[in-house]
Design goal:
The chain is mostly beta strands. The protein has one helix and six strands, in the order βββββαβ.
Length: about 90
C-alpha cells in the first residue's frame, strides 16, 4: 500500500510503501520491480519498471523509492499513485 508520496518538484517524487508482509532481506544497491496494475497469481506479472530501493535494509516494514517522470510508466505513476492505493512489487534484484 502507498503510505506517502512526496513531491520534490520538477516531476521528482519519493514514494513510501507499506508492504503486506515483511520486506525480504536485501543489500544496498539492489532494486525492485514495481507494477501499477493488479497482479493475478495465476497469470503473468503485469507491466513494471525497476527502481533502486532507497530505504534501509534494516527497515522491514516499509520500502521507499525515488523516481523522476521520464516516460509513459512514470507518467502513470505521477497520475495514479495516491496514499492508500495499491502497487505490486517483487524484490530483491541485482
Amino acid at each position: 500500500m502507498v503510505r506517502d508520496v512526496t513531491d520534490h518538484g520538477e516531476h521528482v517524487y519519493t514514494v513510501e510503501l507499506e508492504p503486506s508482509m515483511p520486506v525480504p532481506r536485501f543489500t544496498p544497491g539492489q532494486f525492485l520491480h514495481l507494477a501499477l496494475d493488479p497482479y493475478e497469481p495465476d497469470g503473468f506479472w503485469p507491466d513494471s519498471r525497476a527502481f533502486s530501493i532507497a530505504s534501509s535494509p534494516q527497515e522491514r516494514n516499509r520500502l521507499t523509492i525515488t523516481y523522476a517522470v521520464k516516460g509513459v510508466f512514470t507518467t502513470r505513476m505521477e497520475r495514479e499513485l495516491a496514499i492508500g492505493g495499491n502497487v505490486w512489487v517483487k524484490l530483491p534484484y541485482g
